[in-house]
Amino acid sequence: MLGLAADRLRADTNRLLAFLFHQGILDEQFLQLQQLEDESSPNFVSEVVNIYFHESEKLLRNLRSLLMDRELSDYNKMGIHLNQFMGSSSSIGAKRIRNVCVAFRAASEQNNRAGCLRALELLEHEYCFLKNKLHELFQIQQQRVLAAGVRYPMQN
Amino acid sequence: MGLKLQPSQQQQQHHSVAVKVNEQTGTKRGYTFIQANRAWLPKFLLLWVMVMAFLSTWIYKKMDADIKVRRKEVLSSMCDERARMLQDQFSVSVNHVHALAILISTFHYYKNPSAIDQETFAEYTARTAFERPLLSGVAYAERVVHSEREEFERQHGWTIKTMQREPSPVRDEYAPVILSQETVSYIESLDMMSGEEDRENILRARATGKAVLTNPFRLLGSHHLGVVLTFPVYKAKLPTRPTVEERIEATAGYLGGAFDVESLVENLLGQLAGNQAILVNVYDITNTSDHLIMYGHQNQNGDLALLYESKLDFGDPFRKHTMICRYHQKAPTSWTALTTAFLFFVICLLVGYILYGAAIHIVKVEDDFHEMQELKVRAEAADVAKSQFLATVSHEIRTPMNGILGMLALLLDTDLSSTQRDYAQTAKVCGKALITLINEVLDRAKIEAGKLEMETVPFDLRSILDDVLSLFSEKSRNKGVELAVFVSDKVPEMVMGDPGRFRQIITNLVGNSVKFTERGHIFVKVHLAENTKPVVDAKAETCLNGGSDEGVPISGAHQFKTLSGYEAADERNSWDSFKHLVSYEESQYGASVNMTVPGETSQSVTLMVSVEDTGIGIPLIAQDRVFMPFMQADSSTSRHYGGTGIGLSITKCLVELMGGHISFVSRPQVGSTFTFTADFGRCKKASFNDTKKSNTEDLPSSFRGLKAIVVDRKPVRAAVTRYHLKRLGILAEVAGSVKIAVSACGKNGSSCGSKIQPDIILVEKDLWLSGEDGGLSLRMLDWKPNGHVFKLPKMFLLATNITNAELEKAKAASFVDTVIMKPMRASMVAACLQQVLGIGNKRQAGKDAQNGSLRSLLCGKKILVVDDNMVNRRVAAGALKKFGAAVECAESGKVALKLLQIPHSFDACFMDIQMPEMDGFEATRQIRMMESQAHEQMNGGGIDKGLAGKGEWHVPILAMTADVIHATYDECLKCGMDGYVSKPFEEENLYQAVAKFFQV
């Protein structure tokens, strides 16, 4: 029974990952990130992703305030934020977010406020989506770990 | 162009002459000017033509006028000449008549009685007529007053007659001719006063005392126009200033002569040159209103436009004469002037046209030039865009492809039905092929852009060849194709070069061969390029090889002495030439086992690599485009065998980058042999040992000194086997059959003459399968226990592919201890031998490829990661930690600077380039500055011995960057970085970058 659950969980993980890859939300960098996870740092991925969420939320807040507060937005600062966002996104392999960032940056370089606002909305949307999906993924993985943990003594 | 148009509008105001001059002086000012006035060029041409037409007309006029003036001058000079001569002649005659008059006055009047009578006069005048050529004759008339008439008539015996030969009527005076020249004797006794003209003449002559002339009239005799000259003869000597009355009183008579002017002038003109050309008229213009013609026709045609008038003075002041000359013909059109002007015009026209043409040409060339420049710029831009596009696109394709492959790998992990698994596997294989293709295209683009740089690192050529062969071993085994490699001993163990590219070349060539070969063999051979030549003259020195050759007669007429016995395209690889190479080495090998190559002093070594196959070959028509990209022999080839045909073109480029060249010999249905040369550097012994471990697989040395016999009928194959054994340090001999091998052993047993005491016997499968040898081997087996051999030789079977049945048979025969599958690789052979011989494997260290080596490189190293992005920092740190490095992080360039204050304990620094405040370049620059300062201090003070011992401060800084554009790399190096890694860490990339600094 428990073994079956582990299999199901693995299949779930794979399905979810496949979906994320298929939709272009993640790319192979995420796989590389997963490969970095080993005994010495078992929660490496979730750790990194959590940092990413933390940073990203800050960045998104900043971007929104930059766009909203003043009529004359500081596009330079926005560009720096976006670069940061892009860097971290590509590091964890959040491909779609990265692409939106590219579009956002292009809009900000042209001082296109409307474009920036559109891009920001899209970015927030994508971010939320990714966050949900990754949370889901981590949940499954946690269950898997639990399942594995349960199974381990049984085999012995 | 757009810029040029603006000034041209302004310059159109230029004066045309200036323009002309400029056009004439050539195109020195060239470009701007001509270009600027391009619209005006036809107008310039027209203007030029017009000016030239005007000029030539002017020239014509001028020349024509000159000619006319000259003509006039000629006319006037001729006319004057004629007039002067006429005058001279006339005056000579007049003078003579004067002399006659004096004669008469002297001898007729002063003498008494008269000394002259008619007879004397006639005689005299006749004899002196030559003096007066112009006068038809002279006569003397005496003055007779009416009162004296009768007396006179009586005295002479005739009456005075008038001109009409009638007796003269009564008059005051008479002038009857008394003396006359014979030519005019008909006028004797005629009264001269009866003629109107003569009378007037006489009156005027006696009044003036000078010769006088009449109007011209028709002469009596000749009817020519003429004038009569009359001279007075005075009776007594006149006073010095006589009055008219005194003269009249003193007059005794009149001497007269008729001038035949017409014949006179005709004679005269006849004597002169140019007579035909001009027309002469002589006029008497005493009466100004009515000119009397003396000579010539009044209405004669001539050039009426031009006439010349010369004055004539015949000595009679009362009468005025003039001579008028004109040309017979009208002035001819002056052809010289016409042609000169015309030619001038034509030449100028041509010159103008040439200049125009030149200007047009210049304009055109300049236009073309600009167009070309623009096109060039565009082409270059397109080229840059193309390479960027290629780089981007291939990267972009690779990313999703990695996704696909990753997912496929995940998919294959799941529970799949066999069909599904098959599909997924196929998809994965296809994906891998696609990635390979993309890499190839990228390679090709890189080579074309000249961006491909060759590495120079030491590598082991043999192990690379082994690797490549093992790649294809599966495929070749399935096809039953024999795959073998042979590297000449003279080739150094380690060479400097680009192992990756070398591997790529070999992989390409062997891959092609495998693809197109269904039977026979594929044979890779490497030797020094210099070796090929001396091979020919190296006489057969070997006895053993030769002996074995003779010992085993080749079965089947169609056997060729190649690796597999199939015919190969290039004869050079057949045994006949190959054995020289081998034997040559043999002798050397015997002399020095440690492979000290004679020419080791030279820095580089040129290797010749040939890849021979016995495949379908290349059709003759396709042979010349084999190295062209995307060209396969024909379209059906790609349908049969797949592939894009880009491989060989890349191979060619790579070979050329390695300083060699590639060629091939191919015969359809026989096979192809690709041969290429490449330059490699020799490896220095020192660096040799360091690097050896990192990228070569070590062969166990535990087999050194073993002896083996290779039983093979095919010498080339035997040589290959021997080569692999030799690499393991096993001395091998070749025997043509098991029998010979056995006898060798036997010999050893009986007599110790031969040094061979084989530990191993390797038998080719096809040899073993032929029944005779099988039997023999059994016999040998039988013999074995009987013999006193202290150590039984182990038997191995060499096979390309082996069926289960054959395997069983081999096991049943049990003389074969194990089967070594071909293609042979030194390491594989070693493994087999180890298994069988049980020689301890001392060096079976866990070797999980690069991962392990990377770990060994980074283990225990302290590394600083500088990145402003927390996520990136965490990922980088995680990746590095995974390889055992101790990682510290800094979130900005400033913090990094602080941490890297000397002395510090970091072994390396990974630096992000894009950071706010202080970017990676700047930070690196400052770090380097700091280091050099520290260095100076150290040198100056010499205090810190410990640090000095450590060498100079130089922490390796590696840039972390997301874009791997070449320019960025250059920038990295410029500001003192040591290398770069692309941002999401890839193991290989990281390994390559790190390996330079941390060598174990």
UniProtKB/TrEMBL annotation, chain A:
Main subcellular localisation: cytoplasm
GO CC annotation, single: nucleus
Keywords on record: Acetylation, Cytokinin signaling pathway, Cytoplasm, Nucleus, Two-component regulatory system
Alphabetical list of SUPFAM superfamilies matching this protein: Histidine-containing phosphotransfer domain, HPT domain
GO molecular function: histidine phosphotransfer kinase activity; protein histidine kinase binding
Subcellular location: Cytoplasm, Cytosol; Nucleus
Protein's GO biological process: cytokinin-activated signaling pathway; phosphorelay signal transduction system
Top-rank taxon: Eukaryota
Domain HPt: 41-137
Domain notes: Histidine-containing phosphotransfer domain (HPt) contains an active histidine that mediates the phosphotransfer.
Functional summary from the UniProt entry: Functions as a two-component phosphorelay mediators between cytokinin sensor histidine kinases and response regulators (B-type ARRs). Plays an important role in propagating cytokinin signal transduction.
Name of this chain's protein: Histidine-containing phosphotransfer protein
Organism from which the protein derives: Hibiscus trionum (Flower of an hour)
TrEMBL record, chain B:
Alphabetical list of Pfam families matching this protein: CHASE, HATPase_c, HisKA, Receiver_CRE1, Response_reg
Protein name: histidine kinase
Domain Histidine kinase: 392-682
Xref: CDD domains: HATPase_EvgS-ArcB-TorS-like, HisKA, REC_hyHK_CKI1_RcsC-like
Residue intervals of the Response regulatory domain: 707-837, 862-998
An annotated GO BP: negative regulation of iron ion transport
Keyword Transmembrane: yes
